[in-house]
Amino acid sequence: MGQVVVISTGGTIASRWQGSGFAADARGGDVLATAAVPEGVSVRVVDLMSVNSARLTTRDQLALLRTVHEVLADPAVDGIVVTHGTDTLEESAFLLDLHHDDPRPVVFTGAQLPLEAADGDGPRNLHDALLAAGSAALRGHGVLVAFDGRIHAARGTIKVQTLAADAFADPSGNPVADVKDGRLVVHGRPERPAPLPLPAAGEDLPRIDMVMHHCDGDPLLFNAAVEAGAQGVVLVATGAGNATPEVVAAVEAAVARGVLVALTTRVPSGPVAEIYTHGGAVDLAAAGAVLTGTLRAGQARIAVLSAALTAAGTDERTSALRGLIAAPAAA
Asked: Domain named Asparaginase/glutaminase C-terminal: which ranges (predicted)?
């Protein structure tokens, strides 16, 4: 155990009643004061922002990414906790994981109940995150998510409950650790691709959109995203990654224009796979779409974003995206 830095970004864990609903307004020190700090851990707080996470932008997420790297420039820091809203936590955590090149843990956490709620879940989640961030046993595990007594790898972990305390899970995998009786029980180490470099600061940010397929779905919204200037589009397909011949044609045209197209599914768990034709994943892959394995929509979008931020040219971006998707399965 040692020094852990808490980077506060807002979310429900920092929310108070605003007269008509809850919104983030508490500083990181106020949030930290609610939690028991594990023995042997010293804590320093960085107040980066205080917003509900549905309002976060790519610029906000990149500011968080750069802040994490700046904090880890101090060798006295043993780990980082990021307090974050649950709505987009899975996206920010995965973005940081793709660019995390340090063995020290970065642990995201938050809450389903606001700061001053009786029996709120924030204090326990923050305690567990501090425990994980200060643990040598989790060095080399990348970016993690601590919630409801479990520690998850960032990759594949999504919000699975809108209101319940066990808000996060990897529907296609298992936690990397549990917290039992105040102690970490580590189950395995997630495998991760080689970390990407930090995106250059000050550049124009690419537009990356998501479009969901459904009965009666046509290419209208997909084409609208392309015409709006999207450099990448995530197609959220049905089943194992299926749409229609008309959508396939739209994907092929977009790829020909240099748009990076990723294929995921609206099904909660399992991989996308080339099984069906007549508009299915077989045809979509042939049209140039990159299948995203078990990554779901939000994290598939982050993978496309990171590929677009760190590579120039269609072929280089496609190769980068395939590399991010092809990370080995968890150990």
From this structure: 207-311
